[in-house]
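FAQ

Q: What does a record look like?
A: Structure on top, sequence underneath. For example:
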C-alpha cells in the first residue's frame, strides 16, 4: 500500500486472469510517466505505459461512435509492471522499493 498508488482491479462483473499488473499513480503526468519507465529501465526492470487507446489512433478515429472520457483521464497515470510466474518475492520487493524511491522524488 503506497499512498496515491492503486492496483487496477477487475470490475465486479468480470474475472481477471491477472496476466498484466497495472497500477495507477495519481501524481504522474505523461512526462513523469516516461521518467518512471526510464528509471525502472536503468534498474533492469521492464515496464511500459498502457496501450494507446484505439479511439485515439488515426486509423480508428473516424469509427468512434460514442464518447470515451475515462480512458483519457487515466492513460498518463498508469504503468504496466512486470508480471510473470517466475517473479520471486525479492523481485517484487525490488519493484516496490524502486517505485517508492521514485515517488519520494516527486
Amino acid at each position: 500500500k503506497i499512498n496515491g498508488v492503486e492496483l487496477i482491479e477487475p470490475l465486479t462483473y468480470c474475472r481477471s486472469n491477472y496476466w498484466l499488473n497495472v497500477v495507477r499513480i495519481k501524481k504522474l503526468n505523461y512526462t513523469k510517466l516516461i521518467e518512471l519507465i526510464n528509471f525502472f529501465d536503468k534498474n533492469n526492470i521492464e515496464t511500459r505505459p498502457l496501450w494507446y487507446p484505439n479511439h485515439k489512433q488515426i486509423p480508428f478515429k473516424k469509427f468512434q461512435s460514442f464518447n470515451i472520457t475515462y480512458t483519457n483521464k487515466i492513460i498518463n497515470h498508469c504503468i504496466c509492471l512486470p508480471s510473470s510466474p517466475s517473479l520471486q518475492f525479492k523481485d517484487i520487493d525490488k519493484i516496490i522499493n524502486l517505485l517508492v524511491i521514485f515517488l519520494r522524488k516527486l
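Q: Is there anything notable about this one?
A: The mean pLDDT is 90.
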